TrEMBL record, chain A:
<protein>
    <submittedName>
        <fullName>WD repeat containing, antisense to TP73</fullName>
    </submittedName>
</protein>
<dbReference type="Pfam" id="PF00400">
    <property type="entry name" value="WD40"/>
</dbReference>
<dbReference type="InterPro" id="IPR001680">
    <property type="entry name" value="WD40_rpt"/>
</dbReference>
<dbReference type="InterPro" id="IPR015943">
    <property type="entry name" value="WD40/YVTN_repeat-like_dom_sf"/>
</dbReference>
<dbReference type="GO" id="GO:1990811">
    <property type="term" value="C:MWP complex"/>
</dbReference>
<dbReference type="GO" id="GO:0005815">
    <property type="term" value="C:microtubule organizing center"/>
</dbReference>
<dbReference type="InterPro" id="IPR052778">
    <property type="entry name" value="Centrosome-WD_assoc"/>
</dbReference>
Length: 416, 607
């Protein structure tokens, strides 16, 4: 694996363009656009304040930089570097900002979630959407970019509004039978909208594109409910991760649960491959250590290399005992992701934080478990093939594919 | 039942006598002393008895004792002892006969009594033992009864305890359930409370938001603005449209279209899946039927319902299949029929497999009746036998290999040299023979060749002479031409040709000149036309080529077989000679034909 040199970055803001040709990264108040193949700097833009949020437009022509403190959004064009656009929310404040799927409208969420302002880059028109809901995932666009679903709350009741993105016309407006709507998400085929309640109640509602309620699913009562939700890329399955350390899969035909995946601390099945990260012992030659120690030597001393080893079952994984009397306990399935070919589902159980569980969707069984030395921070699937990249806060990046897995040392000063 | 006491069995004879004594004593109680003193000396008795009897009757009271005895005996029914008294005399004399009779009677009676006593005693003993036995049984049964009573009491106690525990547990369970219910109620109430509070807070918050919103909207500060250099075109390049009712309707339409497309796609997929599954089911059904079909030929004892069912099923299914193939619809009845028939087949198959399992288990146990099923032991034996055979075969192969090796390598130099090419010896000898034959034939051919050449030379010479003659003759003819007719020319030619033939045929040993004039002419032409060509080989060649059924060959074929090879060789040689050596002027077939052609032409050409 080849690594480029290290580039400066602030706020962990670095995004590839949707067409895969450019890489935008922020350094303080500067926006740097590089070419992906050569990593040469193509454009350099300067914003008025420290950038807090960065987003490419869907056609990779524009970049949005949001500065929440100043309530500013600046838009830059790649084709015409001299073109500039600045949106000032003024005293309304700015809490969130995002592109519309056509790449010509910007949706700004003002402070206190008072309203959403839709700024158009094509016309002078401005639209306002009132009563947006402040929740985990209140805005969701369909994959083809035609429709937008927005979670609203009026008079202590939750509503969902469906808008047509081309002219921002309200298509449907209906209320949901939830206590406190926590999030909504479109299925990849754009025909079904999943809405789920907050963790105080386990409830998933499935709405059709025309606003009809298709089905409701609730696995249990009283205990803490849904933590996260993911659609499979073919829209066949809806995976629901909950606080009871289980993932439940609903099928798109009957919207009933077809299986549930439990995340146990011990794995006994010998058919499951378990990769455990082990540290490679380093031979320190005490005489040859330089004095004063160089930075590279120091980092190499502390960043021990590691590799994966296949461990045979039964294996017991490291668990964390969560504090029960605090809100938002670190327990339950917190991260869910389907692979793009719909074959695998990667999950993380928050009270077994070092492990990534990979489930085979075709057989609906546990396939592989990756156990690391440190807690897994995040993982992402390769957008085109079934390859998973995991990072745990150490100086390695871990890659898994059905052929095997590898731990790659990232050459860096300090930790990643 | 009163208490039984064991009675000791008394010793018979003397004791019985004692008893009788005692009984007699009791009878005699009123006149006890008196009677004791009276004694009858003639009776043989024991000493005590003797003394006792002496006590009854003494010399003094004989009369009294007589009278007493008489009294007693008469009362007991015996005849009187004394004589009949004549008058009332005091003294009475004993009637000895009567006395003896009485004594005898008494003895008989005594014996009878003894026997009876014995019988009674034995009976008594028996009864005693029976009673003992019965008492033993009774005591045992009493013990058993006691123990069973105790057990029952114990079990009853335990039952009571367990029931108590059960009740306790039920109670606990009930308590827990109640608690759970209570807690749930508490949770529910708390939840409603929280919701209410939340709603209240939210309302407040909304109010604040509204207020703030108003303020923000009212302020209308210029800061809330967009500063853009120039407006960008739409993504799809079209102009923006006004929002009208039409657009609303259009949006609705598009939305429904999207939904419908999705449904249609899904339905297609589902139909495909259904079709595939139906195919699979039908295949399964067919295979199951085919699996179960051979069951029909099985012995009838195992038949039961299965073959009948299978047959009927097969008939049903074939008709169904035809129906289904015709329709291929997914209507309810067809689907149900398919699933029902598959279920039936599956049940039959299952029962069949169970039967097989039973058979196998029976076989394991030892007794197998079915010839088709081989017991595991037999199977193992067979495999062992086969393994043994394989071993033996392998050993044989090894030994053979060893022997082979021995034969090929383990010989001495002499033998090896002798044995060199031993396999080819026969062929070698044959080859040598054939070589010898070849050489002979070669010699013969050389001879013939020489003779040919000589003949050819002679022929050439004669030809020369003939030509000269001919030339002279022709001259003469020409000179005489003016005077003579043409007829002579023809005759001359024919005559000459005949002459040729004659000359040719006259040559000895030259059978192969089965020549027509053509060949002779041809050869002559050849000898003239071709520059450096020994005539002999050409002769051979022309003969060989012209005469398809050449006599040379015919001659050789008449020879015996070993010379076949020789013939072939010679022909080859000839052909080789004809092809290879250009000096010899290979007269190929074409050339010979050309020769013939030319000869024919020349023939025609000749005047």
């Amino acid at each position: 694996m080849n690594f480029s040199e290290v580039f400066k970055l602030s706020n962990q803001l670095s995004r590839f363009s949707p067409n895969g040709k450019f890489l935008a990264s922020c350094v303080q108040y500067r926006l740097v656009v590089r070419d992906v193949s050569t990593l040469q700097i193509l454009q350099l833009y300067t914003c008025l304040d420290q950038i807090q949020y960065l987003e490419w437009s869907a056609d990779s022509l524009f970049i949005l930089c949001a500065m929440y403190k100043r309530g500013l959004v600046q838009v830059w064009s790649l084709e015409q570097p001299e073109w500039h656009c600045k949106i000032d929310e003024g005293s309304a404040g700015l809490v969130a900002s995002c592109w519309s799927p056509d790449g010509r409208h910007i949706l700004n969420t003002t402070e206190f979630h008072l309203r959403i302002t839709v700024w158009s880059l094509c016309t002078k028109s401005v639209s306002y959407i009132k009563y947006p809901k402040a929740c985990q995932q209140g805005i969701t666009f369909t994959k083809d970019g035609r429709y937008m679903a927005l979670a609203e709350r009026r008079d202590c009741k939750d509503y969902i509004s469906l808008f047509v993105c081309s002219d921002w016309q309200l298509l449907r407006h209906f209320d949901t039978d939830t206590q406190d709507l926590a999030g909504i998400e479109w299925a990849p085929n754009g025909c079904v909208l999943a809405a789920w309640d907050s963790c105080l109640e386990y409830k998933v509602l499935l709405y059709s594109l025309d606003g009809r309620l298709l089905s409701t699913y609730s696995a249990y009562e009283w205990s803490l409910g849904i933590k996260t939700i993911a659609w499979s890329p073919s829209s066949q399955f809806l995976a629901i991760g909950s606080y009871d350390e289980k993932v439940r899969i609903l099928n798109h035909v009957t919207w009933k649960m077809i299986t549930e995946f439990g995340h146990t601390a011990t794995i006994n099945n010998p058919k499951i491959v378990i990769y455990k990260e082990m540290e490679k012992s380093q031979n320190l030659e005490m005489e040859n250590l330089p004095f004063p120690p160089t930075k590279a030597a120091a980092s190499s001393l502390f960043n021990t290399e590691s590799k994966y080893e296949v461990v045979s079952s039964p294996v017991s994984l490291q668990t964390l005992k969560p504090v029960t009397d605090r809100p938002n306990p670190k327990i339950g399935v917190g991260i869910l992701a389907f692979s793009p070919d719909n074959c695998f589902l990667a999950t993380r159980n928050d009270n077994i934080p070092n492990a990534v569980w990979i489930w085979d969707v075709q057989k609906l069984k546990l396939f592989v478990v990756l156990e690391h030395l440190a807690a897994v921070r995040s993982f992402q699937w390769n957008p085109q093939q079934a390859r998973l990249a995991v990072c745990t806060g150490r100086s390695q990046v871990y890659l898994w594919s059905p052929a095997g897995c590898v731990s790659v040392q990232v050459p860096a000063e300090g930790t990643c | 039942m009163g208490d039984w006491k064991t009675i000791t069995v008394p010793i018979p004879s003397s004791e019985s006598k004692n008893i009788s004594q005692f009984t007699s004593e009791t009878n005699m109680s009123p006149s006890s002393l008196y009677s004791q003193q009276v004694l009858c000396p003639s009776l043989p008795l024991a000493k005590s008895v003797h003394s006792f009897f002496r006590a009854f009757c003494t010399e003094e009271n004989v009369d009294q004792s007589i009278s007493y005895l008489d009294q007693e005996l008469t009362t007991l029914g015996f005849p009187s002892l004394c004589e009949e008294s004549k008058g009332k005399e005091v003294k009475r004399d004993l009637n000895i006969v009567a006395v003896l009779n009485c004594i005898h009677e008494l003895l008989v009676l005594h014996r009878k009594n003894l026997l009876a006593q014995e019988n009674v005693e034995t009976q008594n003993l028996k009864l005693g033992s029976d009673m003992d036995h019965l008492q033993n049984c009774y005591s045992k049964l009493k013990e058993q009864l006691e123990t069973s009573r105790r057990e029952m009491i114990g079990l009853q106690e335990r039952d009571r305890q367990l029931q108590g525990k059960n009740r306790n547990l039920h109670q606990l369970l009930k308590n827990e359930k109640d608690e759970v219910q209570k807690l749930q109620n508490i949770i529910a109430s708390r939840a409603t409370q929280y919701n209410h509070d939340m709603k209240r807070k939210e309302r407040e918050y909304n109010k604040l938001k509204e207020r703030l919103h108003q303020l923000v909207m009212n302020k209308k500060d210029k800061k809330t603005a967009m500063d853009i250099l120039n407006y960008v075109g739409r993504a799809d390049g079209k102009r923006g449209a006004w929002r009208t009712g039409k657009t609303e309707a259009r949006n609705e339409d598009e939305m429904y279209k999207v939904l419908l497309n999705d449904y249609e796609q899904r339905q297609k997929q589902i139909l495909l899946e259904n079709a595939e599954l139906k195919k699979v089911l039908q295949q399964m059904k067919k295979e199951m039927i085919s699996l179960l079909a051979p069951q029909k030929q099985k012995p009838k004892e195992k038949a039961e319902d299965s073959p009948g069912a299978v047959q009927s099923d097969v008939e049903e299914d074939t008709s169904e299949l035809s129906k289904e193939n015709m329709w291929e619809l997914s209507c309810e009845t067809v689907r149900e029929q398919l699933t029902n028939s598959i279920r039936k087949q599956w049940r039959i198959l299952k029962s069949h497999v169970e039967k097989l399992d039973n058979q196998v288990s029976k076989v394991h146990l030892g007794g197998f009746k079915d010839e088709e099923v081989i017991s595991r032991q037999d199977h193992e034996q067979e495999t062992e036998k086969l393994e043994l055979e394989i071993q033996q075969c392998k050993e044989m192969i090894q030994t053979q290999q060893q022997l082979l090796q021995q034969f090929t390598t383990a010989c001495d130099d002499d033998t090896s040299s002798l044995l060199q090419d031993c396999y080819l010896l026969e062929e070698k000898e044959r080859l040598e023979e054939e070589w010898a034959l070849f050489k002979e034939q070669k010699k013969n051919f050389e001879k013939e060749r020489r003779s040919f050449t000589e003949a050819a030379i002679r022929l050439g010479l004669e030809r020369k002479a003939f030509e000269e003659d001919r030339a002279g003759w022709l001259k003469q003819q020409f000179l005489n031409m003016t005077s003579f007719d043409n007829k002579n020319s023809e005759s001359a030619f024919s005559g000459s040709s005949d002459q040729d033939n004659l000359t040719l045929y006259s040559k000895p040993g030259q059978k192969f000149y089965s020549v027509s004039s053509e060949s002779s002419l041809c050869t002559s032409k050849l000898t003239k036309s071709l520059p450096v060509s020994p005539s002999t080989s050409e002769l051979f060649q022309t003969i060989h080529h012209l005469s398809t059924n050449s006599r040379v060959l015919n001659v050789t074929t008449e020879d015996t077989k070993p010379n076949q090879v020789g013939r072939e060789c010679t022909t080859q040689r000839w052909s080789m000679a004809s092809r290879s050596d250009s000096q010899e002027g290979g007269c190929s077939g074409s050339r010979s034909l050309a020769c013939t052609d030319s000869s024919i032409e020349h023939r025609d050409g000749l005047p």
